[in-house]
Design a protein that fits this description.
Helix content is 31%, strand content 23%. The chain is α/β, with parallel strands linked by helices and 740 residues long. The protein has five domains: 107 residues, PriA, 3(prime) DNA-binding domain (GIY-YIG endonuclease), CATH 3.40.1440; 71 residues, no CATH class; 184 residues, Rossmann fold (3-Layer(aba) Sandwich), CATH 3.40.50; 179 residues, Rossmann fold; 94 residues, 2-Layer Sandwich (Alpha-Beta Plaits), CATH 3.30.70. The strands form seven sheets. A seven-stranded parallel sheet has the order 11-12-10-13-14-9-15, sandwiched between helices. A six-stranded parallel sheet has the order 16-26-25-17-24-23, with helices on both faces. The protein has a five-stranded antiparallel sheet with strand order 2-1-4-3-5. Helix 17 links the parallel strand 25 and strand 26. The longest helix has 19 residues. The radius of gyration is 30 Å and the shape is globular. The two termini are 52 Å apart. The relative contact order is 0.08. Bound molecules: adenosine-5'-diphosphate and zinc ion (2 copies). The site of one zinc ion has 8 residues, from loops.
C-alpha cells in the first residue's frame, strides 16, 4: 500500500502530494494525520489518498513513520473543500487543511487528558462475602458502598470522600475484586444548567418560513436568505429547523458573528439541546477547544455554535448551516488564507446536501442582490412576534441643538425620554460608537487633533489615569499640557466616550444605575455574561455600551434606545460606510420594545438627510437597498466589481510607497497590452487611509476588478506577484473587510 501525502509545510515548492509506503502494521485512512520523514527531518502530513501501486521506483519510497491519531482528523467533504479554498485563495493546500483543525492539534501541543476510574470486577454480594472473611476496615466498607453499583467512578470523586483511598482500593485490586483504569476526560466549557422554556406557538410568518426550510432538508435547494425584522423571532426558526434536522439523524452548524456577543443565543440553544451542542470560540482554552472539537468529530455533539471558523467543524451527515446576522464583516477572515464563511457555508451545503440559511434584519447588499437575482431563496418575516410594533424612531439634528445653545451630549428630546423612562421604572440602552473617556483631544485654537505617531489615528483620552491611548497599537502617553502644533494651552478632550457618558448619566440620574459594556469592562472570560445578566435582572436601568450592545441582545424591559452619535461610522473612508451605518442603527433600534411595552428610539446625528440614516429611521430596508445598490452600480463598487489591493507595510513610508508604486507599474506593464487589462477598471497607489499601525508604515495599490471568468487568472497572477520578495511586506487582499 502507498499513501499520497501532503506534508504540513506552508510553501509553494512543497505544495504537491508526496508518495510514501504504508507499513503493514499501520492501517491508514484518507484524512488521517501522519508523521513522515521529509529530507533530514520528521514532519506532520495529511493522507490524501491511498493506492495500490507507486508510479515510480519503489526502492526510493520512504515509509510513513506513524499515525498521529487512530481516526481521520479530516472528513472527506472537508478535504474537498480545502482544494476549493486552495484554488480561490491561491494558497498551498496544507494551509487550507490547517483551517479545518484546531490549531492546537499541530505539533502535538495538546494532549488528550485522562482521568482514573475505579470499578468493581465481580458482583457486589461476592465482594461483601470475601470482605467478611478478610476483615473490613471502615474505609473499605465505605469504598465498597460507593462502588456497589458496579459502575466506573472517577478516583477524583472517591478521593473527595475517602481520605487516602488508595489503601483500601489497592486491597480490592490485589484481591481481584476491582480494577483501576484510565479514561479520556473532556475539558468542557460548561455554562451551567439551564431549564428549557416551553415551546412558543409559532407565528404565521415563522410557520411559513419553516414550511419552505424543512422540506429542503430532504431535497437540497439553493441557499435561503431570511430577511426578518428585529424581534421577528428568527432564533425560534433556527431552533425548529435544527430540531428537524436532528430528528432525521443530521447535524447542524450555527454561525454567529462573535460568540461573546451572543450569550443569549447559546443559552437558548443549550436549554433546548443540552449536551448535544458544542461551542467553538476563541475564548475557550486550547484544551477546551480541542475537546469540543473531538466531541463533534466523534458525533457526541451534533450541533455546533461557533464563530466564523466553526464553518469547518467536523460534523458528519450535516443537515443545516445557519449564518446568523449574515451581514457582519466578521464572516470575512482577515488572515491568509482569506475566506468568507458565508461562501464556505454555501459551498459546504451544496457538497453535503445541507440546507444553508443566511439570516439578518439588514441583509448585506451582496446577499440581497443574490436573492433578487434568484440565486438565493428569499424568506421574509416583516413583523415582530405577538403583533409587537416596531419601535418608533425620532431623528434629532444635533446642529440644531447647538444653535439652540445645547452643548451637551444629550439632546433635549433624549433627556426628556430618558427621564420619562426612568420615572416609569423601565430600562434604556444607550449606544455609543467609541470607548474611553472621550474620543480625540483637539486644540480649540488651531484645530489640531493629537494622533498616534505610530498609527496615524487619533488618540483617545482616558480620564482614569489622564493618558492618551492608541486603540490600534496600545501606545500610552501622558496628556500634553499644550498643543504640540501651536503651543496653545486651550486643548481638551472632544467628542464623547462611554466613560464620559457614564459619569454624566450618574450625575443626572442618580439612583437609576448604569452598567457600562465596552472593551474595558468586558475583558474577563465571563464578564459579558455577567453584565448582561445583571441588566436583565434589573440591577440597573441604563445599559451603556459600544457596538457590543448593538446586536443580538434581547431585554424585554427596554423601552428606550438612544444612539448618541449616530454618524461616526458614516465618516469612515470606506465605500461600505453607509451600509455599516444603516445596519448598526437598525440593529440598535431593534433592541427597543421587544417586550410587552412598545419601544422608542432617538437617533442623534449631524446628517439627518443621509439615506443611510433616514433609511434606518423609517426601517425601510428596500428603499435603502435600492439607493445603495444604484450607487454601487453607478460608482462600480462590489458586487458589481471586486476590490483588490496590495497592502505594503514597511518601517519607512518611503519604502512602503515605493513598493506600492513599483507594484502598480508592474501590473500596468505586464497586463497593459493583454486582454486581461480590460478587467482592471481602476488602479492607484497611495498611502493607506490609516497610514501607520504598530509602527509600520502602510501604503497600498488599490484596484477595482471587473467580475468576469478570466479575472481569476488575473488574481492568480497577482497572488504570485505578492509572494515575491520586496523591500516592504506585501499581501494581496481581495474584497477585504476593511480598506483602511
Ligand atoms: P430576532 O432574532 O428576529 O430579532 P428573537 O429570535 O430574538 O428575534 O426573538 C425575539 C423574542 O420573541 C424572543 O424573546 C423570543 O423568545 C420571542 N419569540 C420568538 N418566537 C416567538 C413566538 N412564536 N411566540 C412568542 N414569542 C416568541
Ligand atoms: Zn493648536
Ligand atoms: Zn498607535
Amino acid at each position: 500500500m502507498y499513501a499520497e501525502i501532503i506534508v504540513d509545510i506552508a510553501s509553494e515548492q512543497v505544495d504537491r502530494v508526496f508518495t510514501y509506503a504504508v507499513p503493514d502494521m499501520l492501517s491508514l485512512l484518507p484524512g488521517m494525520r501522519v508523521k513522515v520523514p521529509f529530507g533530514p527531518r520528521e514532519k506532520e502530513g495529511f493522507v490524501i489518498r491511498l493506492k495500490e501501486t507507486a508510479d515510480y521506483d519503489e526502492r526510493k519510497i520512504k515509509p510513513v513513520i506513524a499515525a498521529l491519531e487512530d481516526y481521520p482528523a479530516l472528513l472527506p467533504p472537508l478535504m474537498e473543500l480545502a482544494w476549493e479554498i486552495r484554488g480561490k485563495a491561491h494558497c498551498p493546500l496544507c494551509e487550507a487543511l490547517r483551517l479545518m483543525l484546531p490549531a492546537e492539534m499541530r505539533g502535538g501541543r495538546i494532549k488528550v487528558k485522562t482521568e482514573e476510574y475505579a470499578q468493581l470486577t465481580i458482583p457486589i454480594d461476592q465482594v461483601e462475602e470475601a470482605i467478611q472473611r478478610q476483615g473490613r476496615s471502615s474505609k473499605r466498607k465505605l469504598l465498597i458502598t460507593l462502588l456497589s453499583d458496579g459502575q466506573p467512578h472517577p478516583l477524583e470523586e472517591l478521593r473527595a470522600m475517602i481520605r487516602d483511598v488508595r489503601t483500601p482500593l489497592n486491597f480490592l485490586v490485589e484481591n481481584e475484586m476491582a480494577r483501576v483504569f484510565e479514561k479520556e476526560a473532556l475539558r468542557s466549557p460548561y455554562y451551567g444548567k439551564i431549564d428549557a422554556p416551553p415551546d412558543p406557538e409559532l407565528t404565521i410568518e415563522q410557520e411559513e418560513a419553516l414550511s419552505e426550510l424543512i422540506p429542503a432538508l430532504a431535497h437540497t435547494q439553493k441557499p435561503f436568505l431570511l430577511h426578518g425584522v428585529t424581534g421577528s423571532g428568527k432564533t425560534e426558526v433556527y431552533i425548529r429547523l435544527v430540531r428537524e434536522a436532528l430528528k432525521g439523524g443530521k447535524g447542524a452548524i450555527i454561525l454567529v458573528p462573535e460568540i461573546v456577543l451572543t450569550p443569549q443565543m447559546i443559552n437558548w440553544f443549550r436549554s433546548r439541546f443540552g449536551d448535544a451542542m458544542a461551542v467553538l470560540h476563541s475564548r475557550l482554552t486550547p484544551g477546551e477547544r480541542f475537546d469540543e472539537w473531538r466531541r463533534i468529530r466523534f458525533g457526541d455533539a451534533r450541533i455546533v455554535i461557533g464563530a466564523r471558523s466553526a464553518v469547518f467543524a467536523p460534523v458528519e451527515n450535516l443537515g443545516v448551516i445557519i449564518v446568523d446576522e449574515e451581514h457582519e464583516q466578521t464572516y470575512l477572515s482577515d488572515r491568509f488564507p482569506q475566506y468568507d464563511a458565508r461562501e464556505i457555508a454555501a459551498s459546504r451545503g451544496k457538497r453535503e446536501g445541507a440546507v444553508v440559511l443566511l439570516s439578518s434584519a439588514t441583509p448585506s447588499i451582496y446577499s440581497y442582490a443574490m436573492a433578487r437575482r434568484g440565486d438565493y431563496m428569499l424568506l421574509e418575516m416583516p413583523h415582530r412576534v405577538l403583533n409587537r410594533p416596531l419601535p418608533s424612531i425620532h431623528i434629532v439634528d444635533m446642529r440644531e441643538e447647538l444653535r439652540l445653545g445645547n452643548h451637551g451630549m444629550f439632546s433635549g428630546l433624549l433627556t426628556e425620554k430618558l427621564e420619562d423612562c426612568i420615572a416609569k421604572g423601565q430600562q434604556a440602552m444607550l449606544f455609543i460608537n467609541r470607548r474611553g473617556y472621550a474620543s480625540s483631544v483637539n486644540c480649540r485654537r488651531c484645530g489640531e487633533t493629537i494622533r498616534c505617531d505610530r498609527c496615524d489615528v487619533s488618540m483617545t483620552y482616558h480620564s482614569v489615569d489622564q493618558t492618551l491611548r492608541c486603540h490600534y497599537c496600545g501606545a500610552v502617553r501622558p496628556m500634553p499640557k499644550a498643543c504640540p502644533s501651536c503651543g496653545s494651552t486651550y486643548i481638551r478632550p472632544m467628542g464623547t466616550g462611554t466613560q464620559k457618558v457614564e459619569e454624566e448619566l450618574n450625575r443626572r440620574f442618580p439612583g437609576a444605575g448604569v452598567i457600562r459594556m465596552d472593551v474595558d469592562t468586558t475583558t474577563g472570560k465571563n464578564a459579558h455574561f455577567e453584565l448582561v445578566d445583571r441588566f436583565r435582572a434589573g440591577q440597573a436601568q441604563i445599559l451603556l455600551g459600544t457596538q457590543m450592545i448593538a446586536k443580538g441582545l434581547d431585554f424585554p424591559r427596554v423601552t428606550l434606545v438612544g444612539a448618541v452619535m449616530a454618524d461616526l461610522t458614516l465618516n469612515f473612508p470606506d465605500y461600505r460606510s453607509p451600509e455599516r451605518t444603516f445596519q448598526l442603527l437598525v440593529q440598535v433600534a431593534g433592541r427597543a420594545g421587544r417586550g410587552e411595552k412598545p419601544g422608542e428610539v432617538v437617533i442623534q446625528t449631524y446628517q439627518p438627510d443621509h439615506y443611510a440614516i433616514a433609511g434606518a429611521a423609517t426601517q425601510d430596508y428596500r428603499a435603502y437597498f435600492d439607493r445603495e445598490f444604484q450607487r454601487r452600480k453607478t460608482d462600480l463598487y462590489p458586487p458589481f466589481t471586486m476590490m483588490a489591493r496590495f497592502l505594503c507595510e514597511a518601517k519607512e513610508m518611503e519604502t512602503a510607497k515605493a513598493t506600492a508604486e513599483m507594484l502598480k507599474n508592474r501590473v500596468i506593464q505586464e497586463f497593459g497590452n493583454t486582454p486581461l487589462w480590460k478587467r482592471i477598471f481602476f488602479i492607484r497607489s497611495d498611502e493607506a487611509p490609516i497610514n501607520r499601525i504598530q509602527d509600520r508604515a502602510r501604503a497600498h495599490v488599490l484596484m477595482k476588478l471587473l467580475n468576469h471568468p478570466d479575472t481569476d487568472q488575473l488574481l492568480a497572477r497577482l497572488q504570485e506577484m505578492a509572494g515575491e520578495e520586496y523591500a516592504a511586506r506585501v499581501v494581496l487582499e481581495i474584497n477585504p473587510a476593511s480598506l483602511a
